[in-house]
Design goal:
The complex is a heterotrimer of chains A (463), B (312) and C (220).
Chain A: H1 2-15, H2 20-35, H3 40-52, H4 59-72, H5 75-87, H6 93-106, H7 112-129, H8 134-144, H9 155-164, H10 168-197, H11 207-232, H12 244-262, H13 285-288, H14 293-325, H15 328-338, H16 343-357, H17 363-380, H18 385-400, H19 407-416, H20 420-443, H21 446-456
Chain B: E1 7-12, H1 21-36, E2 41-46, H2 54-63, E3 68-69, H3 95-103, H4 105-111, E4 119-134, H5 141-144, E5 148-150, H6 155-163, E6 167-169, H7 176-182, E7 187-191, H8 192-197, E8 206-222, H9 223-228, H10 231-265, E9 270-271, H11 275-285, H12 288-296, H13 298-311
Parallel strand pairs in B: 1-2, 1-3, 5-6, 5-7, 8-9
Antiparallel strand pairs in B: 4-7, 4-8
Helix pairs in contact in B: 1-10, 3-4, 3-13
Chain C: H1 7-36, H2 44-65, H3 81-113, E1 139-144, H4 151-156, E2 164-166, H5 168-171, H6 173-194, H7 205-219
Antiparallel strand pairs in C: 1-2
Helix pairs in contact in C: 1-2, 2-6, 3-6
Classes of the chains: A mainly alpha (463), B alpha/beta (312), C mainly alpha (220).
The structure holds sodium ion (2 copies).
One sodium ion is lined by residues 106-107, 109-110, 148, 151-154 of chain A.
Protein name (chain A): TRAP transporter large permease protein
GO cellular component, one term (chain A): plasma membrane
Subunit structure (chain A): The complex comprises the extracytoplasmic solute receptor protein and the two transmembrane proteins.
């Protein structure tokens, strides 16, 4: 009963407009003061521990920063050019290219809204020009953008790994096959719709354009290689080089370097008239790039995003601490096991909880709270923790494109300049695709576990 | 769950509840307290770092948010540097020597050595002797040179790894298995039960039976909490704790031997050292003693050596 | 950004940028040290983590000032302006309560590490405790104590030498940031009361961000 009060309080506060972070924090504090003997100091300790005790969460600001440099540094439009060169000539080609571009950007960025902003800003306008309806364009990008958290790297996966103490590297690998599958399913759905409705096809610009576009985008795409080889190594050639957190920091430095010195879309080598200088024309750029106003602005934007996201996560960790302190996860596990739930029913319940929770909560914060509640039950029922993690991530994806709260909906309505309810309607057909995908992922564990088990051996389960 | 009117004893630790020597001991203690002190006291165990990790649990204890914990001995080095003796390489011949030392006057005095900081040591719990593992065979100390070793955060262990030319590294425990497998770090040191429990043997070339150090735990509580108990409750609780300690410590060697056998059965490679080879490791690591002699105290080192002599 | 930046905005924004930049460079440097010099900056990870905490905790009050915190505006957008103002004031009161209780908790936690008394009272601070055990001797795990902080030995550790930085230093951000948060939440409550603002959470920021991105995209 107490737990219903706690969650009622969280939701009530959120609905009257209290920031999510403070709704979580205040409810936890009040719960602790009413029902427990623990000190107020333990709340402050837990707040600090969100950073001090979870080295894995440190990857988050670095992935955000890498993504910011990639967005401002002109990587997105080079990826889009390459996508269009590859698949633009199919019926519905520009839409398919949009999905393909989202998939590639997702492999550089850890966040879904960032993917929508980076790709959607350019692609939606281009699609309108090519004769697609605005609704169709928005629906496509809004959905494809959710791949940002399924295709590694992924901030949501980092949060899950930190919350239940599994390996981040393992989670990232687990997202590869589902990410490619979901992308492919979206593309097929678009192709079918395009044939039925006779949507426009672009012209094939030739292999020369594919090659040229690839060469131009290669510096950006190389980041995928750096992250993947950095974390996993090349079998038989080299071992891994860094931890996932270090990979994120290296990715940020690399993205900064590419943006300032190779693409020169930002930083001291770009003149006011948009010209790109060679380094010998402005050699002191090597130093000034670090302090250039574009760099400072990107650092600040990424920092601000880190602040708002991590403050939610830190307060969700306070809630988690209070729940643990009152032994709620144990009680819940006992209750569900006593009720005789098997793995199938259990996963249905998890899906429902997450889909409903996703209506109110920012995905990472929701994950921090739900994961420790359902994790012990999943272990008891013999569900693989990595599989559970992917199920959660796919649920979060769906939460992002369903009203009333869906980060991708907000962002897309901004990008496409249309009312949110129109975006909701536009996203609906593709949402059905994601639902089918969710059912597949939920009941076919191998989709998630095949690759990590192949590369890293079976997950060891320690109670 | 605890009934109204029962005093709640929260015990926070960082291992599983049924396979690790510490987890098993904690579960046994919980069972006995809840059965025998029913109505007076009730113990809630929080395993797997769900409530606090080792770095925070002592802070929480001084705040009064948790009553019992059993961190590894190196965690007490911040409280009093004497505890560094347990991390010094080749200080103890075997677990019996550790036990003898802990039960000597010098060892028992260490239980009380943190009272001014607010902590009271109650019992030592054994895990076992540490072994070394790496991505290549470790026969001589030179084999370890240039390798990256994951260590617990302790200045002594850092110095020990540097003494054999290794590079000590810190990382989150959940990443250690993956890091070993993929070569972010090359090696680690641990007891048989930890190596088996975390399956490190799967991702290492082999384990060398060095017995170069120990991992042990101190069951600890806060002075203020212990003082606040009624004398009869305190005595009953401490008696149960002592009995659990006797039972479990007697089993710890067996637990580790069983883990060692399990590793072999699972196909893990275990390498023995000849006396001369082991001596080379001693010669390489023992200079570390000098650096920390002032911290741990000459008399403690002497007591430890006396304990070694007694069990041999 | 359309708003003029005040002097304090500049300070806060600089702190956010600089901390994130330093965190990245330090982590990168540690990787380089490991592969190029086969050594390891042992304290790099701990220092990075502390900078991370300072970044987010100090940034939280900035985000209140700039209405940047994430929230649910579905209901606020449905109701009349008058109702919105009332809900806004209720929400603001909740935020002030949060900041106030957090400030008390943060002080209680940090105080002992700085050999200062905690507050008495469970909900409200009812004065300071008279006897307590100082924890000024408590050190962090890895970061050595810089020469400039040696004076703390006399202040917090009875003149005993520190090998590592005392925990009081990184934890200081807790009361500092929560105090700032209390100030900012009070300030925003006043603004909602006077009608200068109507909510505490980001509403259409996504659209602004998109506009900015669109500007950049056009410019390239
Ligand atoms: Na991604
Ligand atoms: Na939603």
């Amino acid at each position: 009963m107490e737990i219903a009060l706690l969650f009622g309080m969280v939701i009530g506060l959120m609905l009257i407009g209290v920031p999510i972070a403070m709704s979580l924090g205040l409810s936890s504090i009040l719960f602790l003061l009413w029902f427990s003997d623990s000190s107020m100091a333990s709340i402050a300790q837990t707040l600090f521990e969100a950073f001090e005790g979870h080295f894995t969460l440190l990857a988050i600001p670095f992935f955000i920063l890498a993504s910011s440099f990639m967005s401002t540094g002109g990587v997105a439009q080079r990826i889009i050019r390459f996508s269009i060169a590859c698949v633009g000539h199919f019926r519905g080609g520009l839409a398919i290219a949009g999905v393909f571009a989202c998939m590639m950007f997702a492999a550089l960025s850890g966040s879904s809204p960032a993917t929508v902003v980076a790709i959607g800003t350019i692609v939606i306008a281009a699609m309108k020009q090519a004769g697609y309806t605005k609704e169709f364009a928005a629906g496509v990008i809004c959905n494809a953008g959710t791949l940002g958290i399924l295709i590694p790297p992924s901030i949501v996966m980092v949060v899950y790994a930190a919350a239940v103490e599994v390996s981040v590297g393992r989670m990232f690998l687990a997202g590869v096959i589902p990410g490619l599958m979901a992308g492919l399913m979206l593309m097929i759905a678009i192709y079918v719709m395009a044939r039925i409705k006779d949507m426009p096809a672009g012209e094939f610009a030739g292999f020369g354009e594919i090659f040229a576009a690839f060469r131009d985008a290669a510096w950006g795409l190389l980041l995928i290689v750096i992250i993947m080889i950095g974390i996993y190594g090349i079998p038989g050639v080299t071992g891994a080089i860094f931890t996932p957190t270090e990979a994120a920091a290296v990715a940020s430095m690399y993205a900064f370097f590419v943006a300032c010195f190779i693409y020169r879309d930002m930083g001291p080598l770009r003149t006011k008239d948009g010209e790109r200088l060679a380094l010998y024309q402005n050699p002191k750029a090597i130093v000034t790039a670090f302090f250039h106003k574009d760099t400072r602005q990107t650092l600040f934007d990424a920092g601000k995003l880190t602040v708002t996201l991590m403050f939610v996560i830190a307060n969700a960790l306070i809630l988690k601490h209070v729940l643990t302190d009152e032994q709620i996860p144990q009680k819940l596990t006992q209750m569900l096991l006593d009720a005789g739930f098997g793995p199938v029913m259990f996963l249905v319940i998890v899906n429902i909880i997450l889909l409903i929770g996703g209506q109110f909560m920012e995905p990472s914060g929701l994950l921090v709270i739900v994961a420790p509640l359902v994790f012990p039950i999943a272990i008891e029922l013999g569900i693989d923790p990595i599989h559970l993690g992917i199920i959660m991530v796919v649920n979060m994806e769906i939460g992002m494109i369903t009203p009333p709260v869906g980060l991708n909906l907000f962002v897309t309505s901004g990008v496409a300049n249309m009312p949110m309810m129109a975006v909701v309607k536009a996203a609906l057909p593709f949402l059905a695709v994601l639902f089918v995908f969710l059912i597949m992922v939920t009941y076919i564990p191998a989709i998630s576990t095949f690759l990590p088990n192949l590369v890293m051996g079976p997950e060891l389960i320690v109670n | 769950a605890c009934d109204d009117g029962e005093m709640v004893i929260k015990f926070s630790h960082v291992t599983n509840t049924d396979k690790h020597p510490k987890g098993i001991a904690a579960s046994l203690l919980e069972e006995r307290v809840n059965a025998e002190m029913n109505g007076k006291a009730c113990m809630e165990v929080f395993p797997n770092s769900t409530l606090y990790n080792d770095n925070k649990v002592l802070e929480a204890m001084l705040q009064g948010d948790v009553q019992l914990a059993a961190p590894s001995l190196s965690k007490f080095e911040t409280f009093t540097k004497q505890f560094r003796i347990f991390d010094l390489p080749f200080m103890f011949a075997n677990v019996e020597a550790v036990d003898t030392f802990q039960n000597s006057d010098a060892g028992q005095a260490m239980l009380d050595s943190m009272q001014k900081r607010g902590l009271q040591g109650l019992e030592f719990w054994h895990n076992g002797m540490k072994q070394m593992s790496a991505s290549k065979p470790l026969i001589t100390p030179a084999d370890a040179s240039g390798l990256k070793f994951r260590v617990q955060p302790s200045d002594v262990l850092v110095a020990q790894m540097e003494a054999i030319g290794g590079s000590p590294q810190k990382m989150a425990f959940s990443e250690v298995y993956g890091a070993l497998q993929q070569g972010v770090v090359d090696g680690q040191e641990n007891t048989w039960s930890n190596i088996f429990g975390k399956k490190f043997f799967e991702v290492q070339d082999g384990i060398t039976e060095t017995n170069h150090g120990i991992i042990d735990y101190l069951v600890v509580t806060s002075v203020d909490w212990l003082d606040s108990l009624d004398a009869d409750v305190r005595d009953q609780f401490l008696t149960i704790l002592d009995e659990v300690t006797q039972v479990r410590n007697a089993e710890s060697t067996q637990t580790n031997e069983a883990a060692k056998a399990d590793i072999i059965a699972a196909g893990g490679e275990i390498r023995q050292l000849t006396d001369e080879q082991r001596q080379a490791w001693i010669d390489a690591m023992k200079p570390v003693w000098t650096k920390f002699e002032g911290d741990v105290g000459k008399e403690n080192i002497e007591a430890a050596q006396k304990a070694n002599a007694m069990v041999n | 950004m359309t708003e003029d930046r005040s002097f304090f905005d500049t300070i806060e924004e600089t702190i956010i940028s600089v901390l994130l930049g330093l965190m990245t460079i330090l982590t990168f440097a540690n990787v380089v040290a490991r592969y190029v010099f086969n050594s390891n900056i042992l304290w790099a990870l701990e220092l990075t983590v502390f900078m991370f905490a300072w970044l987010v905790l100090l940034g939280a009050s900035y985000a209140v000032k700039k209405t940047a915190h994430l929230g649910v505006d579905a209901i606020l957008n449905l109701v009349s302006p008058a109702t919105r103002r009332i809900l806004g004031l209720m929400a603001a009161f909740a935020c002030v309560s949060f900041a106030f209780l957090m400030f008390k908790g943060a002080w209680d936690y940090w105080a002992n590490f700085a050999n200062l008394p905690q507050t008495e009272g469970r909900w409200f601070p009812l004065g300071f405790e008279e006897s307590f055990r100082g924890k000024g001797w408590y050190e962090v795990n890895d970061i050595p104590v810089p020469e400039a902080m040696k004076f703390l030995e006399g202040l917090l550790n009875d003149g005993d030498e520190y090998e590592k930085m005392p925990r009081a230093v990184p934890y200081m951000v807790l009361p500092l940031s929560m105090g700032l948060l209390l100030f900012r939440t009070l300030q925003v409550t006043w603004k909602i009361y006077t009608g200068e603002k109507d909510m505490l959470i980001v509403s259409h920021e996504a659209e602004e961000a998109v506009e900015e991105a669109a500007q950049q995209a056009k410019g390239t």
